[in-house]
Amino acid sequence: MVKKGIVFGEEVSAPIVSEGSVLIKVVNSCISTGTEMSGVISSGTPLIKRILKQPEKINKALNLVRSEGITKAYKQIHGEMETGKPTGYSISGIVIGTGKGVEDFHIGDRVAAAGGGLANHAEYVDVPVNLVVRMPGALDFKEASTVTLGAIALHGVRRAGLSLGEFCVVFGTGILGLLAVQMLKASGVRIIAVDIDETRLKIARRLGAEFTIHAGIEDPVKTVNNITNGYGTDAVLFTASTTSSTPLSQSFQMCRKKGRVILVGVSGMEINRADIYQKEIDFLISTSYGPGRYDDSYEKKGIDYPYHYVRWTENRNLSEYLRLVNNGAIDLSLLITKIFPVESITEAFEMLKTEKPKPLMVLMDYGIPDMSKTTDYREQERKIVINNSTVVKTGRVRVALVGAGSFATHMHLPNLGKLSTKFQLIAVVDNKGYKAKAVGKQYGAKYVTTNIDEVLADKDIDLVMICTRHNNHGELVLKSLQGGKHVFVEKPLATTEEEIKKIEDFYSNNDSQNKPVMMVGFNRRFSKYSVEIKKHTDQRINPLFIHYRMNAGYIPADHWVHENGGRIVGEACHIIDLMSFFVGQPVKSIHVDSLSPTTGKFLSSDNKSIILKYRDGSVASIEYFAVGSRELPKEYMEIHFDEKSIIMEDYKRLKGYGLKINEMTTKQSQKGHLEELEKLHSVLVGKDHTWPIPPKDLFSTSLISLLVSKF
Fold it and tell me: How far apart are CA 255 and CA 527, in angstroms?
């Protein structure tokens, strides 16, 4: 874990293997002395300085202040930055579990894996299959743990597109540069290594560099031109890490006409046009370990690119690097400087901060697992008690949070804290053990775990609060209900009709009165604005005519919110529920029309006009769109009936025309998140004997949302 510039080991719950992934017992992990150390140092920078160094986040912070107020915004930002996070992205180990849909890996396989936030420095990691490769032959775990760094260097070499006999300058002989030197040598390329560290230049010569240049002693541009008979190099592989723009300028200058510079490392980016224009230099970026990087469809969903069209994906680069190491084309004996036991991880990172010269490659060792205990590793208890002093108190609803995402931590947990005489947080469940523990500590939970079965078996848990991503809501709701727990699930209830039917069936038998209470987070009906409006609409003579606008805001098409019914199922469901709350009658008919965008930026799926006709003759029109200005308030509603009108603006202002209404005004939107929990508590403790939201409304809203999403 990294926090405030310090790396430390911490006991957290081991992950549960997820769909499309493999659970790996780690044997070795490799520390990236460049990228990782930059992150460690950055984490020690004060909050304000960190924000100022990332201008793109300033606007985001200002928007948060406008919507939530400065105190809440500061707590949210401070909490995110102060939470320790895992580090590392390159490991080797043994498969001890495979998730649903995984066919190419089996328990006992020797593997290497990559991925920031996935292949961390940890005893157990859960990694999607496209970031995992088998280890060839008798390759050692230590060497295999360098797989990610190898793939980064290999992709850079591929981007250079060099052929036999051409010249390549490797500018920077850190670990990436020294790996690249060996790859270029294996390709028959003539190598010129440039650095200001004579020790590393000596290693470069031993590994295959034909020429070396100490840039602190001689002019690298003149020397390269001399070596290449005055033409200049065919390519420069820039593997240095510097904030200065001078080395990059020198890289352009030492190229031949129509040469190319490939940026693998980090550089200052003040580019002089004169360096590149006359010689028509190509400047290429090498993105991490290759095609597939930063594409969730590839990395997390396991959707591969066709071999014939994308020959070298990141997975194929990872595999090829291991092959080169295994057959001796790449020698790591001069590069692996030191190996630390996992218990000494703080010492390892502190050494990288202070030791001169800085080590090239440092590994962590976790030991070879006993494969006769595979089942024990996989099925070990995930529960970690973090607060022994916590006393489980009767008279309060005892809560287990499942899914410690941003909405749960920024909305529900603070509200549970405000209602501490009514609710008590007992457990936090999240597949990321570090996140579960950080959130559990912050909000005073008794224990944390990555396994929901442990809270379902806990007699001290009354209520399971589900705040995971939408796709597994239905499964978790049913599992929790079958475990005898009351359920609060953030919207949506489920994302398929089959899941909704199973939950309905759970309540359909004659014993339904004695079954747990279920509530979906349709919070807007509990807003004090909605409650005030309802007082008047319930007194109507004629049907309601309602118009609701939700200016939802643009979200890129590849974002996960567009999956599993998209934003209609995930957000517009709020408004569908609210309309039914005001009308109080079943929906008789539905009409839906969608925008037909001219360009591919916007989607028809989150730009819809929805008209609901109710049995009593009421009509509700909902405009849900992503094409509006963010400067326009998000939500607006008009209700008309009996020559009376009510206007509600973004849950901040209420005004009536033709009737006497409590014309409220609040600085912040009051959407009913706190009030919905208060209502749920009154039901669970027996003060109120009707569900917070009638079951027919829960199921009706969920099914209507799914239907609308398909238009």
Answer: 66
